[in-house]
Amino acid sequence: MIDFGRFTGNKYIEENKITEKGIVSFSKYFFNISDVDVFDIDVLESNEKRFVIKTCHCPYLKYWKEVDIDKEVPFFCEFTTSADLGIALAFDPGVKLKLLKNMLKGDDCCIYSFEV
Fold this sequence. Notes:
Number of domains: 1
Distance between the termini: 20 Å
Structural class: alpha+beta
Order of helices and strands: HHEEHHEE
Largest sheet: 4 strands, antiparallel
Strand order of the largest sheet: 1-2-4-3
Helix content: 40-55%
C-alpha cells in the first residue's frame, strides 16, 4: 500500500507540475489526492514539522460493526493508512505516520499525525 500511495502521490505531483516539496506541500494537496472526503476530516495542526488530522466518522468501521467483523480486522487502519503515508513520502521521503487514536481499537475518533 505504501508503494501504491507513493505512485499516486508522484503521479499527482507530475500531472499538476507541483514543485514544492515537504510536509506543508503534502498538507496543501492531500485532500485532492486521497479519498478522505468520505471521512469528514478536521485539520488539528499543519506546519513544517507536522500535519495532524482527525476524524470521528469512518464508513469502513460503521459497516464492519454492522456485520460484526470489527474485532477480526484490528490491523486494517494501519494497512489502509499506509497508502496515505506513501502519498506523503512522495512529497517528503522523511515523513513518518503515527496513528495517535484509532476508533477500531475503541477510541472515540482517529487522529493521524504525519511528522518529519
